[in-house]
Write a structure and sequence with these properties.
By secondary structure, the chain is an alpha/beta fold. Helix content is 40%, strand content 17%. It contains nine helices and eight strands. Strands 1-2-3-4-5-6-7-8 form an eight-stranded parallel beta sheet.
């Protein structure tokens, strides 16, 4: 069934679920989202997030420091310890966001490089966020990423040239609800040309809800809308899109 390759379960508003996040998780699982990757964004919040999801075998976790949250004193030794935990299958999200935080460029680059070194040490794939930083993202990945470990360019919104370079580096490309937006035609044309065996799907919940929920809180449940979009663009069934993206996820993370 569906795998949401990128969500922030600890950031969801769960007031509308009588028993909170646990109920959201169990209903989402029952509705067919049989695995989720819950993404870490800072070392301080990480233990809280881990505690919230640790009881669920079908929820995987990543450890990272978001590019919009990097501080000059970010604790990379602690990050390395967190990344080494068994439940943690990926390192990130890391990367570069020059759209929202051009002022912290240097700290973002340093943090991104640290993440790549940690990913190489623990042999776990990277989760990369890139916004208005195409060239630097590619240059840094080419220079520092362990291509055998690989990773994901999450919430892909870049151009064809960037997609091609990421594929050359062995990375997977994760499609979010943004691709369902009316103004995302260029992105849909890129998705049409992506090799099916390198596509993942995600919600990035609670952000970026797909059409028809655009503007509302996103939930991992809505990953089916992303699968449907990929299916339509590729001329396959949604069930097949779910199956292929799940196989891709398992291959990347060596899961069965
Ligand atoms: Zn992101
Ligand atoms: Zn994210």
């Amino acid at each position: 069934m569906f795998i949401d390759s990128h969500c922030h379960l600890d950031k969801l508003n769960v007031q509308h679920y009588a028993s909170g996040l646990d109920e959201l998780i169990t209903t989402t699982y029952a509705a067919g989202v049989t695995e989720m990757l819950c993404i870490g964004v800072d070392t301080e919040q990480f233990p809280v997030m881990l505690k919230q999801v640790e009881a669920y075998d079908f929820i995987h976790v990543s450890a990272g420091i978001h590019p919009l949250g990097v501080k000059t004193a970010s604790d990379f030794a602690l990050l390395a310890q967190q990344a080494d935990l068994k439940k943690v299958i990926a390192v990130g999200e890391t990367g570069l966001d020059y759209h929202y935080a051009p002022a912290t460029k240097e700290a973002q680059v340093a943090s991104f490089v640290q993440h790549m070194q940690i990913a190489d040490q623990v042999k776990k794939p990277l989760i990369v966020h890139s916004r208005e930083a195409r060239q630097d993202t590619i240059n840094l990945l080419q220079a520092h990423a362990n291509q055998e470990v690989g990773g994901i360019i999450h919430c892909f919104t870049e151009d064809q040239a960037m997609a091609d370079k990421c594929l050359d580096l062995g990375f997977y490309i994760s499609i979010s609800g943004i691709a369902t937006f009316r103004n995302a035609e260029a992105l849909r044309q890129i998705i049409k040309r992506l090799p099916l065996d390198r596509i993942l799907i995600e919600t990035d919940a609670p952000y970026l809800a797909p059409v028809p929920y655009r503007g509302r809180q996103n939930e991992p449940l809505y990953v089916s809308y992303v699968a449907q979009l990929v299916a339509d663009l590729k001329g396959i069934s949604a069930a097949r899109a779910a199956e292929i993206t799940s196989e891709n996820f398992h291959r990347l993370f060596n899961l069965s």
